[in-house]
Write a structure and sequence with these properties.
about 140 residues; alpha/beta; 5 helices; Rossmann fold; four-stranded parallel sheet; 4 strands
């Protein structure tokens, strides 16, 4: 199996979006659907799932995953590690679609996470992606 570096992934995204004219939101929907299919193999309908989202495209993937899991009958809670107004671009579109489907975000405070995560059947990490820079805080 070959594994791409972060730089290679960014280049693949750039080529796909700008040279092949595939909208970023389409890539996000595809990534979210792929992760949704994996999650469905791990948790039965009605399972409790927390999705941890950041402000970037990884967070956008998480919003798609949450929307699909909710539609599939899972009990989904979405934790957001920023203010909703900080989510931009394709991720903002994915957040809007998720909210239109009836899901809301909860602030990702240590208290809330400490209380809810132990009760989950599955936790989806949609916080960090290829754009992560600097020390993790």
């Amino acid at each position: 199996m070959r594994v791409a570096t972060a730089a290679q992934m960014r280049e693949m995204d750039r080529v796909t979006i700008y040279e092949r004219a595939v909208p970023g939101i389409t890539l996000m929907e595809r990534a979210g659907h792929g992760a949704y299919q994996v999650a469905c193999g791990l948790v039965r309908p009605g399972g409790r799932i927390s999705v941890l989202c950041g402000r970037g495209n990884n967070g956008g993937d998480g919003f798609v995953i949450a929307r699909l899991l909710n539609a599939g009958g899972c009990r989904v809670e979405v934790f957001l590690a920023c203010e909703p107004s900080e989510v931009r671009g394709d991720a903002a579109q994915a957040l809007e679609a998720m909210e239109a489907a009836g899901l809301r975000t909860t602030a990702a405070s240590l208290e809330a996470l400490g209380e809810r995560l132990p009760q989950c059947d599955l936790v989806v990490d949609a916080l960090l992606g290829t754009g992560t820079a600097g020390e993790i805080r």
